[in-house]
Amino acid sequence: MAKVVSNSGKKTLILHLGPAKTGSTTLQKYIFPNLEDVDYPEYFWKNIGNLHYELASTEDFVELLKPYIGNSQKSSMVFSREDLWRVRAQRLRESTLDKMGCLVATVKVIVVIRRQGDILPSLYAQNASKIRKEGFEDYVESIFNSNKLPANINYESIVNSFINAFGNDAVHVTPMEALFDPANKDARHRLALFMGVKPKALEAAFNAAEPANKRASSNGQKVTYELKTRLTYSGRAMQSAWNKTKYFLGPIRNKFWFKLLRQRFRHCLTRPIQDFQVTQERKAELTAAFAESNWRLAKKCGLEQELQRYGYFPNPTNGDTEEKIEAD
Questions:
Q1: 20 to 30 Å CA-CA from 256: which of 44, 122, 232, 323?
Q2: Within this chain, do residues 265 and 137 fall inside the same structural domain, yes or no?
Q3: Shared-domain flag, residues 249 and 149
Q4: For residue 211, what are the contacts with CB-CB under 8 A and spacing of at least 6?
């Protein structure tokens, strides 16, 4: 269980772990900042932007958080980073409860999940420049054949590790689809209670962020992922060299003819990446491959009905309406 000390001088630490592609940017830009207002003078939040994937020791994480925790009078502090789940759960516990026990009374963990079938196309689109020339289906096949799934969609493993470290009551799991569903206030209500804020305040923060969180509907649409042209390896090297020219070229960089020359040269060092489409039926099939793991996670967290409602278990779709979106 989570270590709780009844001391009014100590902080309640809330860690939002991500993972990526689960609405982390919206939470960081619009939701958490909206809560840090006059209605919550005891509330503080920070996006830990300089956290590396691998911390050399627990002291690294302590040094990262201590300036905020030690110098703040706030009683509830939220730290968000979509890659924080990569840090071993036991190491986070040592960094917070064990190493900063004099400052921290309670640690809570927020994990947002998303249908794996929706994340895989987005991961492919994001890493298209690194994936030689294989198509999306080849990419998916290579993942399943390698028996090494992308760690950020293995939710059962992520959640289990943090429950083992902090305790079941200290870990809150919520599906992104429910969190950003205007018709589902229960998911936001549970998150508000977990964070210790008023449900109405959290609901207002989500309502304010709604225009920034528009996504393609999942009702039987065929989604076209639009991929931007990417630099080749040589192009990236040239881009790095160009970034360094500001030290010795100075104002020449701003000349029109110089910019035009650079643009034409850059065009020669890029390669087009073909857009690809993924039907909602195919996404459902991909998610179904994780159905057993998702079901175990649902039972552990009491989310059986919610995950079933949002298609984490096999759910046939039909229709082929097209909609174009940029890969998020």
A1: 232
A2: no
A3: no
A4: none
- Sequence-separated (6 or more) residues with CB below 8 Å from residue 72: 11, 44
Asked if residue 26 and residue 165 are part of one domain, the reply reads yes
Residues 40 and 176 in one domain: yes
- Taken in order 12, 18, 22, 27, the sign of the CA dihedral is positive
Whether 26 maps to a domain, the answer reads yes
Contact 291, 314 (CB under 8 A): yes
Asked if 111 and 247 sit in the same domain, the reply is: no
Which residues, other chains included, contact 214 with Cβ-Cβ below 8 Å and sequence gap of 6+? none
Could you tell me the residue range of the domain that residue 161 belongs to?
11-218+282-309
CA dist 188 and 175 (Å) reads: 11
Q: Is residue 107 part of a domain?
A: yes
Render pLDDT for 86-145 as a digit per residue (tens, 0 to 9): 888 888 888 888 878 777 888 999 999 999 999 998 888 877 666 656 788 888 888 888
Q: What is the DSSP letter of 75?
A: S
How far is residue 273's CA from residue 125's CA, in Å, rounded to a whole number?
Answer: 10
Residue 320 lies in a domain: no
The Cα 184–Cα 178 span in angstroms is 6
Q: Determine the Cα–Cα distance for residues 291 and 312; give it in Å rounded to an integer.
A: 6
- The DSSP annotation for 38-68 comes to TT-TTEEEEE-TT--SS-SSHHHHHHHHHHH
Number of domains in the chain: 2
For residue 184, the 8-state DSSP code is -
User: What pLDDT, in 10s, does the model give residues 249-269?
Assistant: 666 666 665 666 666 666 566
Sign of CA dihedral 209, 214, 218, 224: negative
In a domain, 325, yes or no: no
Number of residues that this document lists for the chain: 328
pTM: predicted TM-score of the whole model, two decimal places = 0.76
Q: Are 276 and 313 in contact (CB under 8 A)?
A: no
CATH number of the domain residue 59 falls in = 3.40.50.300
